[in-house]
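Notebook, bench 3.
Goal today: get a predicted structure for NAD(P)H dehydrogenase (quinone) from Occultella aeris so we can plan the truncation constructs. The sequence was checked against the plasmid map this morning, with no discrepancies at the termini. Length recorded as 488 residues. Pasting the sequence as submitted so the record is complete.
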Amino acid sequence: MSHVTSTPTSPTTTEPASGVGRSSTREGSRVVVIGGGPGGYEAALVARQLGAEVTVVERQGMGGSAVLTDVVPSKTLIATAEWMTVTEEAADLGIRPTGGHAGSFEADFATVDARVLSLAKAQSADIRTRLEREGVGLVDGEGRMDGPSAVIATTSYGDQRLPADVVLLATGARPRVLPTAVPDGERILNWTQLYQLTEVPERLIVVGSGVTGAEFAGAYNGLGADVVLVSSRDRVLPGEDPDAAELIETVFKRRGMEVLSRSRAAGARRVGDGVEVELADGRVVQGSHCLIAVGAVPNTEGLELEGAGVKVSESGHIQVDRVSRTTARGVYAAGDCTGVLALASVAAMQGRIAMWHSLGDAVSPLDLSQVSANVFTAPEIATVGIPEHRITSGEVRGAITTLPLARNPRAKMLGIREGFVKMFSHRASGLVIGGVVVGPRASELIFPITLAISNRLTVDQVSSAFTVYPSLSGTIAEAARTLHDARG
């Protein structure tokens, strides 16, 4: 998923929305949620906890695209590919397959694909079961607004009008389509269609080097495909920490991936049993398959938003403030359809905040400075807090430290040679204000830094906490110790 931010369009407040009272009106409040993804189903659970009558309208399946076609299946595929990259260090660790040299492994793609799809379906079923157990009404169909206080659900049985005191729009987004590279589901694909493949592509051309493109390029390279990554920018992952992105690109190339930087794709066409991708400078890249990963567009068409008084931006995203309110009283929005930050964790928090606010519970506005994000390449890139460029530009008076993982004793034992920990602190206060972790399971290692930021801990407080010896998290404590004298 891409990392996109937008400026809130309504004033921030912790007071309940107009027309919705506090705890005395929670019981019996009618909440209708359009969209059963992370933003929608998490909101539904909170609303039920607060005593509201809740109905979720979902057309695809509980969990939405995040569970069925995006986050869950893609990270399952990536987890399998990661096992293939781990074997790179097998020989150095003294491990050899009994039948031959180290690294002689291959993926049974039919098994991989079946597991990916079965896990996604199982997760969707678990979410549905949880919602039903909590008393949430579920409607299989498409929802649209009928003014600001009702939803029309179109189902196989006809239309159903659902009156609402509170409406949450959590309709997500879908892959952007280039008119010159329209997916056919067989050779030219978007990321929701990859799971229809029955074998590893012989030569996969990935158009787009953002988070989605880089993750799939790395995964299929690990699974044995010949991969060409087409990037219109100077480097892969242009929105990430430059040092982290440079390391990932170096790893990609070392593993045999062809990275075409500053190469904009003009179009893709199917040619027989393969594809051709034409670049803007006239070059043509040939492959067996092409993945188009050039961002996403919000699913906001057909929702009758204008009639409900809900404003959208020029890009089609629903405008919200930091407590998830739209421009219509009693109507909230969460997730990728808002364009705030395209992460499942943010969608879920937006949905929870919407219910806490609308139903009169205690609530804190969304704070993006506390959001941790992860790129599931191998190694992973995890980030939280302010980026380094805000310090180097002088915008923030901060101190920076960078420690390589290779000198960590646990990393040596595990054969980890690449990766690092960065930590940023405020020079005046010593507060931890940001961090970057690059390495295996960086998504787990970023959590201590996230906790430090969200609880306003100083580097001295972080460094005084015990870590296990040996452990990769020891480098985080060491980074904090190196910032001890960085005030001034």
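The two ends are 38 Å apart (CA to CA). DSSP finds 14 helices and 23 strands in the chain.
Flagging this for group meeting.
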